[in-house]
Amino acid sequence: MKKNLKKILLFVCVGIVFTGLLAGCNQPAQGPVNPNLQVDNQDNKEELVICMGTRPPGEFDPRKRWGLYSQSQIIHDTLLTRTPDLEIIGDLAESYFVSEDALTWTFHLREDYKFSNGEAVTIEDVKFTYEMLKEDGIHWDLTFLEEIEVKDQQTLVFHLSEPRSTFVAQLTEIVILPSNHYDDNYSENPIGSGPYKLVQWDKGQQAIFEVNPYYAGNEPHFKKFTLLFLDENAALAAAKNGTVDMIYVLPEFADEQIPGWKLYSYESNDVRGVSLPTQKSGSGTTPDGYPIGNDVTADIAIRRALNMGLNRQAIVDTVLNGHGKKAYSLVDKMPWWNEATIIEDNQVAAAQQLLQDAGWVDDDNDGIREKNGLKAECSLYHPSADVIRTNIAIVVAEQAKNLGININLVGSNWDEMKTKMHSNPLLFAGGRHHPHQFYRMHHPDLAGIAYNNIVYMNNPVVTEYMEQAMHASTQEEANENWKLAQWNGVTGASALGDAPFAWLIRLDHLYMGNSRINVGHQPIHTHGHEWSLLANISEWTWDASEK
After folding, report:
1. d(C-alpha 227, C-alpha 211), whole Å
2. How far is residue 338's CA from residue 457's CA, in Å, rounded to a whole number?
C-alpha cells in the first residue's frame, strides 16, 4: 500500500509541477521582471536573487500581520530580539527591567538608531507604534497595556493592567514605525531602521532591498537582494536556468542536483495536523454566521482513535520524503512543551477497540463504523493549492479507512474554508516561538474569532491553566502551567486529553541555494517557511573558497 500511495502522491506533484512550469512560461507576471538575469559565481558576490514564496505576509505593515513570522527585522527593528538559541536580548532597547509583579516594564533605548531616511528613531515612535496597534487590535492583542509613560527621551515605561507572560514575545515581533510617516499607504513605502531598506516593490512580482546606510548594526555583506515572488515549482525552474541564488523547495524535489548548489535543511516546529471540531452540530453559529459543530468529531472516541491510530512516520516518509519529524502537539520542542504528551501512534488495533468500546461498530460490513445510526464519516478540507497539505490529506484519508472511519477529501481555498472550519475537519498548521498561539487555539473566549479556537474547545481545567500561564509573573511559572494545560495526568488539550487536533508532522524547512552562501546560525524555524531563513539575512556571507 505504501508504494502505491507514494506513486499517487508523486503523480499529484508532477502534475502540479508541469502546470506550474507552463504557467511560469505563459504568464510573465509570475516570473522575474528581468527573466534574462543570470546569477554568476564571482568570488566576492554582494547581491542575491532569492525566492521564498509567492508574497510577503502583511506587506511590510504590522497592522497587516507583518512581524508575525520572524521576517520583521529585515527592514525594521524591534525593542527586543531573539538569538539563534531563542534567548531574548535587547535590540532598540539597550536594556530593560521588569518589576517583581510583572506590571511595569522599563526600557532604556539606544541613542544611535536611525530610520532609512536618516531621521532618528525616537521614543515617540515607539509610543506611537504600540498605541496604534493597541487601538487597531486586529492582529496584536495589547488590551492589557494600560499606559505608556515617557520618563525621558531614552526611558520608556509600559504599565500593564495585569501580568502577561507572552508580552515578551510581542516585544520581539512588533516593529517600530516612524510616527511622522506612517499612514494607510505605509506598505507602499515602508521606512524602518533595520539592516535593509525596500527600494522597489512590484506587487506579485518582486521586492528589491538594499542596505540601509543608517543601520546601527554591523553592515551586511550582501548589499542588495531581490526577492522574487514565485511558487515553488516556478522557483525550481528558475534555479535550474540560473536566475536565482536561493529558493525554498518542496520535499519531493529536495534530492534535485544543481551544479554548484546544495540543500539547506533546518528543523522546525512548523506543524501540520487535522482540526477536529469538539461540539455537536447545531451548536449555533460563529460571530460571522458560520455553522458550529460536527456530530462525528464531537465524539472524543473518534478524536482519540485518529490520534493513536494514524501512522505519523508513514506521512513523514511518503509526503515529506523523510524530511521532517513526527509531531504530537502545537508546541513540540519549545520550552513550554510537555513531553508527556508524546503518544505511541500507529496503534490500529487499539484504536479499533477504542471505537468498538465507544459504540462505533460496522454492522453492515461496508467498512464504515456506525453509532446510533450515524456513520463514522466526515469531510476533510484542505487548500488545494498547497501540495504538502493536499498530500497529507490523501494519506490521512487512506489510513483512516483502517480504523473504520471514512474521510471525504475536499480541495478548497481559504475563503471557503473559513466558513467550514468550525463544522468540519481542516488540514491546519501552526508553530511559533512563543505559546500565545496555543492560548488562542484553545481558549473558549476566542472561539470563532478569525482562526482562533476553530474547534470550539471548552475545557474549564485547561482554560484555568492557560489563564495562570498567561498571567504568571515569571516565565518559569508560565511554562509550568502551559505544560499542565497540555496534560496534567487527567485531562488537557493534547492527544491524551480532549484531542481537539490530531497533530501529525513537523516539516524540515528545505532550501536549495548556491553552496557558497553561508546563512549563519539558524534557530529552529517556525511556521511561515518563506521568511524563516531570511530572518538573519544581514548576517549571511559569501564563502569564496566553497565550490
Report:
1. 14
2. 19
* Residue among 439, 501, 497, 441 at smallest CA distance from 465: 439
3-state DSSP assignment of residue 525 = strand
Domain boundaries, the chain: 1-74+194-267+509-547, 76-191, 271-507
- pLDDT tens for 408-431 read 999 999 999 999 999 999 999 999
Options 3.30.390.50, 3.90.76.10, 3.40.50.720, 3.40.50.670; which CATH number does 76-191 get? 3.90.76.10
Give backbone dihedrals phi and psi of 78, rounded to 5 degrees, phi first: -125, 165
Give the pLDDT of residue 546. Answer: 64
Query: How far, in whole angstroms, is CA 114 from its chain's centroid?
Result: 30
Task: From 324, 231, 321, select the one nearest 270 (Cα to Cα).
Answer: 324
Round the average pLDDT of the chain to a whole number and report it: 90
**What pLDDT score was predicted for residue 18?**
34
* Neighbour order of strands in the sheet with 196-202: 196-202, 206-211, 224-229, 47-53, 246-248, 509-514, 261-266
Q: What is the distance between the alpha carbons of residues 322 and 462, in angstroms, rounded to a whole number?
A: 34
Q: pTM of the entire structure? A: 0.88
- Give pLDDT tens digits for 140-151: 999 999 999 999
For range 474-493, the mean pLDDT: 97
Gap between the Cα atoms of 488 and 19, Å rounded: 49
Is 50 exceeded by the pLDDT of residue 512? yes
Gap between the Cα atoms of 157 and 149, Å rounded: 5
As a whole number of angstroms, the distance between CA 404 and CA 352 comes to: 8
At residue 47's C-alpha, the angle toward residues 43 and 48, to 5°, is 105
DSSP 471-500: T-SSHHHHHHHHHHHH-SSS--SSTTTT--
Radius of gyration of the chain measured on its C-alpha atoms: 24
Q: Which CATH superfamily is domain 1-74+194-267+509-547 in?
A: Periplasmic binding protein-like II (3.40.190.10)
Q: What pLDDT score was predicted for residue 26?
A: 31
Write the DSSP string, 50-89: EEEESS-TTTT-GGGTTTTTS-GGGT--BSEEE-TT--EE
